[in-house]
């Protein structure tokens, strides 16, 4: 039992810990690529491809976990246009892909690094690990990754990152459009946090995203070819921009964050300080460039700067962040050949979602209404609808409406409704406000009626209440097709019901004991709705066992059933055992051989059992047996006496009784007559 249960569980934890470690290595690789233009010398980055299980004395480990990192050519080219930029529409680049090969942690993701964006691919469901470092507050650095990288093993390998060409920089004062090939357009539209002045739109048909840079916000665009793995291609940058000077290539940096202050969701302007020092002398470095990025899980927003912050006279650079929601996250700082991460814990604010301030003002005769509002309480993706109605309630004529689909949280926002005039209405008017935020399960609504010619609502005005409706996906296993034989598929029929009071979509997973998650399906259910689903496990050789836990889980509930996988049955096998003969006989008599035939296989079968001497079949009989069944057969050979010049059958023979599966042999004698 220890070998079957404890060893796999301990090894799975080792593999999980390794996956977290190699993710940190890949973040370092990402930072080295994003800052490659800061040195002309190769910068080795260690990647722990695999891991080692602990040595065991009385139990057995499988082979140590391995991993592979390789460069994959992008399916398409990078192009840049605008600001009189020409001949930059076929820039080649590569993605870097790490794939683990674990024995127990079978649900481990493949990790992809493209254009400095690092994300995990869970068999089609992609989750961002670290945000892109390519687009800063007012500058862009595009690394074109080149090289034939392919490393596999269970140890640690060093990936050399070197500057092949550039960086070359173009100063801009007009809008610039960048086309990037990508494996997942949605990662760039919803999985990244772009600064002001940069907008992104997907082109899923071509596998590209289009990023437009506002020329009034951005000052420069830089490009560099970055090498990993050797066997590099030709130069690509041509006459684009001007080359940037490189710092002293012998100088290497160390980057460290100071301990962060306590942070609560909704906090703004939180300062996180890094110090850059010389690795050799330990002296603080002034005017060193520091780039900041973050884990992309929606917990913080980097207010300033995102890139190219310069250290002061004591080697310090400061990132200013806003805490969006509670939970754990990481901010990263990179300078020269060094990068580091700082773990942050964002505490809950305890403040109810809604408005901390809402004011509505209108001039005489009500021909326009201006709303000033501050949404608060840990909202992450709020949307606010405003409407003005003629009359004492919302049943009156709608005069105008407007939506703010992306208001700043914990900051004042302004929206004006001016789609009507004083001739449209006389007092009273009714104002309706609806705030929603699916990420924190909040719906705030409120109305107010004003009977005066000049509206003035202060200090909230509209009483907003929260609807804490939530979904609840219960799982109840209804049936299975067990037992199955190795190689067949276990099917688990499950009823999933949304017993909550909110429509929702969840992923329902099937987890098999000692195998991890083997199947999943995404299910959308309205409140009170239920749906039968079937999740499956494709078994393989070696999976035979009894009482295997099969667990079907939603985000809220789980149900477990035990299933049996039987070993593949042995085919019918007819074992032959000669019991006795009537040898010797005289020519002309019948030789009889008695044999027992037993089916030692697991399946019913039939065979032709033959008696053979001198390679000649003397007798045959058909036999059909169920598993474990046996029978006795008597096989006969009618011998022939000699006549005149024709010899008879007299002699000593090897008599073979054979079933096609097995043969037994005995010696028989036929005497002269």
Give me the count of strands.
Answer: 49
Query: What structural class should be given to the helix and strand makeup?
Result: mainly beta
Strand arrangement, major sheet: 7-6-5-4-2-9
Number of helices: 2
Provide the helix percentage: under 10%
Give the percentage of residues in beta strands. Answer: over 45%
Please give the radius of gyration in angstroms. 38 Å
The total domain count is: 5
Sum up the overall morphology in one term: elongated
Protein architecture, described:
It comes from Halobiforma nitratireducens JCM 10879. This is CARDB domain-containing protein. Residues 652-673 are annotated as: Disordered. Helix content is 6%, strand content 51%. It has 673 residues and is mostly beta strands. It has 5 domains: 2-186 and 206-240, no CATH class; 251-350, Immunoglobulins (Immunoglobulin-like); 356-466, Immunoglobulins (Immunoglobulin-like), CATH 2.60.40; 473-566, Immunoglobulin-like (Sandwich), CATH 2.60.40; 574-671, Immunoglobulin-like. The longest helix is centred in the first third of the chain and has 33 residues, at 2-34. It is elongated, with a radius of gyration of 38 Å.
Layout: helices, strands, pairs:
Blueprint: H1 2-34, E1 43-48, E2 66-73, E3 79-81, E4 94-101, E5 110-114, E6 117-122, E7 125-130, E8 139-146, E9 150-153, E10 156-171, E11 176-181, H2 185-190, E12 198-203, E13 208-213, E14 220-228, E15 242-243, E16 253-257, E17 263-264, E18 270-278, E19 289-294, E20 300-304, E21 309-310, E22 316-323, E23 327-335, E24 338-347, E25 354-362, E26 369-376, E27 383-390, E28 397-404, E29 413-417, E30 429-437, E31 442-450, E32 456-457, E33 465-466, E34 473-480, E35 484-485, E36 489-498, E37 504-512, E38 516-525, E39 530-538, E40 545-553, E41 558-566, E42 574-581, E43 585-586, E44 590-599, E45 605-613, E46 616-625, E47 630-638, E48 651-658, E49 663-671
Parallel strand pairs: 8-14, 17-24, 35-41, 43-49
Antiparallel strand pairs: 1-10, 2-4, 2-9, 3-11, 4-5, 5-6, 6-7, 10-14, 10-15, 11-13, 12-13, 16-18, 18-22, 19-21, 19-23, 20-22, 23-24, 25-26, 25-32, 26-29, 27-28, 27-30, 30-31, 31-33, 34-36, 36-39, 37-38, 37-40, 40-41, 42-44, 44-47, 45-46, 45-48, 48-49
């Amino acid at each position: 039992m220890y070998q079957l249960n404890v060893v796999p569980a301990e090894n799975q934890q080792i593999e999980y810990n390794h996956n977290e470690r190699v993710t940190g290595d890949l973040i370092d690789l990402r930072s080295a690529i994003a800052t490659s233009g800061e040195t002309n010398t190769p910068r080795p980055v260690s990647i722990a491809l695999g891991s080692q299980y602990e040595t065991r004395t009385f139990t057995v480990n499988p082979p140590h976990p391995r991993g592979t990192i390789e460069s994959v050519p992008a399916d398409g080219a990078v192009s840049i246009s605008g600001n009189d930029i020409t001949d930059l529409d076929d820039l080649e680049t590569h993605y870097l892909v790490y794939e683990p090969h674990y024995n127990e942690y079978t649900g481990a993701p493949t990790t992809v690094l493209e254009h400095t964006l690092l994300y995990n691919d869970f068999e089609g469901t992609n989750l961002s690990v670290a945000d892109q470092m390519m687009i800063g507050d007012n500058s862009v650095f595009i690394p074109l990754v080149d090289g034939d990288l392919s490393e596999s093993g269970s140890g640690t390998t060093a990936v050399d990152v070197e500057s092949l060409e550039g960086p070359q920089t173009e100063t801009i004062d007009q809008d610039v459009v960048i086309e990037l090939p990508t494996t997942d357009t949605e990662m760039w539209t919803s999985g990244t946090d772009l600064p002001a002045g940069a907008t992104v739109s997907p082109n899923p048909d071509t596998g590209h995203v289009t990023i437009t840079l506002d020329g009034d916000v951005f000052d420069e665009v830089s490009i560099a070819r970055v090498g990993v793995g050797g066997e590099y291609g030709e130069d690509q940058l041509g006459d684009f921009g001007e080359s940037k000077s490189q710092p002293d290539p012998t100088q290497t940096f160390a980057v460290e964050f100071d301990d962060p202050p306590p942070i609560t969701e909704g906090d703004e302007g939180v300062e996180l300080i890094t110090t850059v020092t010389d690795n050799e002398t330990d002296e603080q470095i002034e005017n060193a460039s520091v780039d900041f990025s973050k884990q992309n899980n929606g917990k913080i927003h980097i207010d300033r700067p995102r890139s190219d912050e310069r250290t002061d006279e004591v080697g310090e650079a400061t990132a200013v962040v806003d805490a969006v929601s509670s939970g754990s996250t990481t901010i990263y700082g990179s300078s020269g050949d060094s990068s580091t991460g700082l773990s942050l814990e964002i505490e809950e604010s305890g403040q109810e979602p809604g408005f901390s301030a809402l004011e509505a003002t209108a001039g005489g005769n009500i021909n326009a209404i201006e709303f000033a509002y501050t949404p608060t309480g840990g909202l992450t993706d709020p949307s606010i609808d405003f409407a003005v109605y003629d009359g004492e309630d919302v049943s009156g004529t709608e005069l105008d409406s407007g939506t703010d689909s992306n208001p700043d949280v914990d900051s004042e926002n302004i929206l004006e409704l001016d789609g009507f005039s004083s001739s449209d209405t006389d007092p009273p008017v009714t104002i309706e406000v609806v705030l929603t935020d699916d990420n924190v399960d909040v719906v705030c609504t409120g109305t107010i009626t004003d009977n005066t010619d000049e509206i003035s609502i202060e200090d909230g005005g509209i009483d907003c209440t929260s609807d804490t409706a939530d979904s609840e996906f219960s799982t109840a296993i209804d049936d299975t097709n067990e037992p199955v034989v190795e190689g067949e598929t276990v099917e688990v029929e499950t009823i999933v019901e949304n017993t909550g009071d909110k429509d929702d979509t969840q992923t329902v997973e099937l987890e098999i004991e000692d195998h991890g998650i083997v199947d999943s399906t995404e299910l959308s259910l309205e409140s009170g709705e239920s749906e039968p689903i079937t999740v499956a496990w494709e078994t393989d050789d070696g999976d035979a066992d009894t009482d295997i836990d099969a667990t079907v889980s939603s985000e809220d509930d789980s149900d477990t059933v035990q299933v049996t996988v039987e070993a593949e049955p042995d085919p019918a096998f007819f074992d032959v055992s000669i019991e006795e003969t009537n040898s010797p006989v005289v020519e002309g008599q019948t030789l009889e051989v008695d044999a027992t035939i037993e089916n030692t296989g697991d399946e019913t079968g039939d065979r032709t059992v033959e008696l053979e001497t001198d390679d000649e079949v003397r007798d045959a009989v058909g036999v059909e047996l169920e598993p474990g069944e046996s029978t006795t057969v008597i096989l006969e050979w009618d011998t022939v006496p000699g006549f005149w010049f024709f010899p008879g059958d007299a002699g000593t023979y090897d008599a073979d009784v054979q079933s096609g599966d097995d043969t037994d042999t005995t010696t028989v004698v036929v005497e002269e007559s």
